[in-house]
Design goal:
single chain, Ubiquitin-like (UB roll), 3 domains, 16-stranded antiparallel beta sheet, membrane, transmembrane
């Protein structure tokens, strides 16, 4: 037996054992948790989109590096074995592993070169045969674990069967081992089928060689045979794997080498076992998959003569993005929402989050991701397929009354203006009297004004509308015209934590009292301000002065949003904290603090519990329009809109949402809330002052947008009763 260590053969054997398990693949919904299993990724059904890994992409990543010299020899021995389609294989140059595409012509050329190498190999084997003949034995040569079929040992020499033909059906009289220093011969004997007393067959011999390799202790096994009068004796000359001196990891960028080495579970100073290496490699891939890197593979394992084991990781990086199905939306609007950039390893969790971000734009009915093999080795091309929906809105209304004459309204908007992702809205009201014939409002929002996901927007308006004010008993006490003129500018930016956004808003607003509505006493007062119900004109004018004027403020807000769907959330939460400071030369000076918390819990497939809690406090000189208001369709259903106003506020809603039919959802709810102020409350606030309601509602997805119908019933013993509410817009 040649005692020279065949290190290339050892690497091939270890890596071939690694490839016996099937690579993981995935079809993952954007709202799913990923669980890596032996055969793939298990998922639960999601709501929007899938992540599909094509078979070609699975084969591209992590398998091309498994082509060893031995497997190349096997695949190029004969012309008939050459494939018609190009294949991928690993080539090592200058210390870098490459995967190259090889066509049939190249394989034919290499096949001829291989024949020359085989002749040289045969000459070396002849020397062994001469020695073997002198000892009346034959040496069939080295054997390899082949990664191509994953089923066991294939003899390196195609003449193996002929070389042992003379021993067929002879009785095996003795089986011994040479070279085994760490594994006892008795243990090895137990793995053999062809033991002493059995008949010799070529097939059984190959099976036994396979079994010995599968123990994991050897990188080379050469059986030799001696004919004796009773039959044949077999000696297995084994070369054990070296002692591990160092484990090195290459190609890892997302998981540290320390964590990978720990997952491998190998100990320095112990003999390397290829089975343990195989198990460790699977653990490394599971470690990657748990963090979302479902394409990451241990692509190669190399063993150096000094026991230095090198683990090569292919993380499956993104080569490019391709978008399909978008006839209006620009490609960059979609691609910029991806949480992974070109060159990053593909991550299923980030891909799922990316689909949420794309869907939450409100431009698409469905979003799916498909992974195709890239042009470069160990890369994927991410294909994003979308189904667009209408994003434009148009509204028109008209009416007539004896008092106001003809009234009209036109509104136009598009939340995906010209496919850029910008949002534009224009509203114009015309007709009526002099106070209401010049109403307009214009808003524009532009996301991604830089590469840090900064959004900017503005709104300016000139609106005169009729307002009604109510006391705490729900009785109307004022009806008047108010003119609002102003503008708001805001900027927001996502932080390093993509779920957190900081926002700043600048506001300049002028509220003007334009007179009472015909038929109402001029000596009206405004809820939350006056202690007397009917005051003199001078006092009323003074009160109006304190409630109408210019407000100039800056607001800082911090928002945490992990909801799976901002339009119809089923999981996650949203938390908002804000602080508004008014001064800057305006008529009012105040500080306003507010907190809002929303939580969603899915129960079953389509049922959802939704919780909303809020609180607010303001201090200073604050106009009526800026005070907290509770009551109506938004909060505390069953009471009039904004029935309770004040400088302090508490509110809460709990809803159970369930599907009824397609596009229609049922809601059972309970609300609690109150707003108060020391300026006009006779006593300090107590929790017993909170108002409670219960009720039922419907949510209808219509072509005009979401419609909400609610009936709330007041539980206050002194004011029992109910009220219907109709409104447009999404639910909290």
């Amino acid at each position: 037996m040649n005692s020279k260590l065949h290190w290339q053969q050892l690497s091939a054997a270890v890596f071939a054992s690694l490839l016996l398990s099937s690579p993981a693949y995935a079809e993952v919904s954007h709202s799913q948790e990923v669980t890596l299993t032996k055969n793939g990724v298990q998922t639960q059904s999601g709501e929007v989109g899938t992540i599909e890994v094509t078979q070609e992409a699975k084969e591209e990543i992590g398998t091309g590096n498994g082509t060893t010299d031995a497997s190349q020899k096997e695949s190029t021995k004969t012309e008939e074995a050459l494939p018609d389609k190009p294949i991928y294989r690993e080539v090592r140059r200058n210390g870098i592993t490459y995967i190259e595409k090889v066509g049939k012509e190249t394989l034919q050329k290499e096949s001829k070169e291989q024949e020359v190498q085989d002749e040289q190999l045969a000459a070396r084997m002849q020397q062994q045969r001469e020695i073997a003949e002198a000892q009346n034995r034959k040496a069939p040569g080295r054997s390899f674990l082949t990664p191509d079929d994953g089923e066991g040992i294939v003899d390196e020499y195609d003449k193996l069967a002929k070389s042992v033909k003379g021993y067929e059906n002879l009785t095996v009289t003795k089986v011994t081992f040479e070279g085994n220093q760490h594994e006892k011969a008795e243990v090895l004997q137990d793995s053999l089928k062809m033991s002493a007393g059995t008949k010799f067959t070529t097939v059984q011999m190959q099976d036994d060689i396979r079994s010995l390799y599968e123990t994991g202790w050897f990188y080379d096994i050469v059986p030799t045979f001696t004919r004796v009068p009773e039959g044949v004796q077999i000696v297995y000359h084994v070369a054990e794997n070296p002692i591990l001196t160092e484990l090195e990891v290459e190609g890892n960028t997302k998981i540290s080498s320390h964590d990978i080495i720990r997952a491998m579970g190998l100990k320095e100073g112990e003999v390397v076992n290829s089975r343990d290496v195989n198990v460790g490699a699977r653990k490394v891939e599971s470690l990657y998959a748990e963090q979302g890197y479902i394409l990451a593979k241990v692509s190669d394992i190399r063993m150096l003569p000094d026991g230095h084991l090198i683990l090569q990781v292919a993380e499956g990086v993104i080569e490019d993005y391709r978008v399909k199905g978008n006839t209006k939306t620009k490609d960059y609007v979609i691609i910029r929402e991806m949480r992974m950039k070109k060159g990053d390893p593909f991550n299923a969790k980030l891909a799922r989050r990316s689909m949420q971000k794309i869907y939450n734009l409100g431009f698409f009915e469905d979003v799916n991701i498909r992974l195709n093999p890239g042009q470069m080795p160990n890369t994927v091309s991410v294909e994003i397929t979308v189904v667009e929906q209408s994003t434009g809105t148009f509204g028109i209304g008209a009416g007539y009354s004896d008092a106001d004459g003809f009234l009209g309204m036109v509104s136009v908007g598009d939340k995906n203006f010209r496919g850029t992702g910008d949002s534009v809205n224009v509203r114009w009201e015309f007709g009526g009297d002099d106070e209401t014939n010049t109403n307009f409002e214009v808003s524009y929002i532009k996301p991604w004004i830089d590469d840090k996901e900064t959004t900017a927007g503005f709104t300016f308006y000139n609106m005169t509308n009729e307002y009604a004010d109510y006391d705490r008993d729900g009785d109307e006490i004022a009806r008047y015209y108010k003119k609002r003129i102003g503008e708001e500018i805001f900027f927001s930016r996502v932080t390093d934590n993509e779920f957190i956004t900081n926002q700043i808003t600048l506001k300049n607003r002028d509220d003007k009292y334009k007179g009472k509505v015909d038929g109402y006493d001029s000596n009206q007062y405004f809820e939350g301000v006056d202690e007397g119900r009917y005051l003199g004109e001078d006092v009323a004018a003074e009160r109006r002065k304190k409630n109408f004027g210019t407000t100039r403020s800056i607001t800082f807000a911090r928002i945490l949003d992990t909801r799976d769907n901002i339009y119809d959330p089923r999981e996650g939460k949203r938390t908002m904290y804000s602080f508004e400071w008014a001064n800057f030369g305006g008529d009012f000076r105040f500080e306003k603090y507010q907190a809002d918390y929303r939580y969603y819990y899915r129960m079953g497939k389509d049922n959802v519990w939704a919780l909303n809690l809020g609180a607010g406090y303001a201090n200073g000189d604050m106009p009526l329009s800026q005070r907290f208001a509770v009551g109506g369709s938004e909060f505390l259903r069953g009471y009039r809109d904004d029935q309770f106003k004040g400088n302090s506020m508490l509110k809460g809603s709990l809803e159970f949402r369930y599907p009824i039919i397609k596009q229609v959802q049922g809601v059972t709810f309970t609300d609690a809330g109150y707003a108060w102020s020391k300026d006009y409350d006779e006593t300090d606030f107590d929790l017993s002052d909170l108002k409670y309601t219960v009720g039922l509602g419907l949510r209808i997805n219509s072509p005009l947008g979401p419609i909400r119908l609610d009936y709330g019933y007041r539980l206050d013993s002194s004011d029992r009763g109910g009220r219907f509410h109709f409104s447009f817009g999404g639910q909290f």
